[in-house]
Amino acid sequence: MKQYDVVVIGAGPAGLAAACEAYQNGAGKILVVERDKEPGGILNQCIHNGFGLHYFKEELTGPEYAGRFIEMLNNTNAELMLDTMVLAVTEDRKISMINPRDGYFTVQAGAVVLAMGCRERTRGAIGIPGTRPAGVFTAGAAQRYVNIEGYMVGKKVVILGSGDIGLIMARRMTLEGAKVAACVELMPYSNGLNRNIVQCLNDYGIPLYLSHTITEIRGKRRVEGVVVSRVDGGGKPVPGTERFFDCDTVLLSVGLIPENELSRSAGIALDPRTKGPVVYENMETSIPGIFASGNVVHVHDLVDFVTAESQRAGAAAADFCRRKEQPGGEPAVAIESGENVGCTVPQHIRPDRIDQYAEVFFRVGRVFSNSEIEVASGGRVLSVFKREHMAPGEMERIVIPKKFLENASGGAVTVSAKEAKEN
Question: How many CB atoms lie within 10 A of CB 109?
Fold first, then answer.
């Protein structure tokens, strides 16, 4: 059985950044395993720009961003194993995998970084009524067909959901000559970044129907049209508001789910809100020596944040391998979701393991204008962060000083979002 210091599962932006950082922090033998035939992950099909503004301080396309990290990886001693599917990860960090060259085999890792990314919700997951014709795609699948495989998926399109991939595909399909009749969103707000609403819908005159959903798909062999209805505050269709759209294609941009079959089978604790592993401040999961980062932990809106998070995981994995005796038993502070906050990452912070402060990421449950993020413990407000705008589609980041965590009442800190108080 081959032995490695660090094994990274996934060669997308998270895996590439984690592997490079593990090397920079002294990891000797590093293995990066990728099920696709090329590294880069989802970035390879994201040919639009807007990547790298935070990390590289310049605007790049997805393949350009991935290419820079692939070049960094090539300058390390890491072994990259492509076209290889990981089948299982055990608690003692044995990793079973399979590929056409070597068949089935197992390697032993000193530390593991899970970076498998996420997958899209499908029509079956949301249960749209109607017939089952061809022409219904997830937005990401359509993006791959158009940008990588070179196939046009349709000519008259309706998009359900206003996630970033759906918004970007509205523009992409328009540029390829298709007519995008509408983008339909169940919620009273968009789930995508505001810049994508402007650049992908408004700039091309594509209407966005908020508080609407598809209530029927019509067609025999191919999609012939959809019925769109307005919904009430509970998400139920309102009778009499039906509207028919003639189309041959439906794209679904209805949410992403962290890819956590391996995490679950390894016995790693999962957060029911993020659907990803519960992690500590250094991205370590509930099993010592197994770390996770990127969209496998929680769905990000910017790849730059994925990179920063994954570098933290890679450095921690290298540190875990380097230590002959692992620390343990340090008190941890629980980071809890308060009013209007859906989930937080990390879920636990060990004050003894941070220098000055800890980063906390979260999403709010509704749209805010002038607002405040409140950090409290035991009924006492520790800190307040002002925000001019917050929305569920945009991830928020705050930093909590170490001294606040050390003095947390009952070992817990609560993060809440509220309307700003009038002066």
Answer: 27
> Do the beta carbons of residue 81 and residue 31 sit within 8 Å?
yes
> What pLDDT score does 421 carry?
74
Q: Which residues lie closer than 8 Å to 202 by C-beta, 6 or more apart?
A: none
pLDDT of residue 312: 97
HSE-CB for 349 with a 13 A CA cutoff:
28
User: Residue 280: pLDDT above 80?
Assistant: yes
Cβ contacts of 100 within 8 Å, gap of 6 or more: 83
* Contact between residue 223 and residue 217 where contact means Cβ atoms under 8 Å apart: yes
Between CA 201 and CA 213 the distance in angstroms is 18
- Residue-wise pLDDT for 326-343, tens only, equals 777 788 999 999 999 989
Pick the CATH number of 2-119+257-323 from 3.50.50.60, 3.90.580.10, 3.90.550.10, 3.40.50.2000: 3.50.50.60
What number is the average pLDDT over the span 125-149?
A: 95
Pairing relationship of beta strands 85-89 and 223-230 according to DSSP bridges: unpaired
Q: What percent of the chain has pLDDT over 70?
A: 99
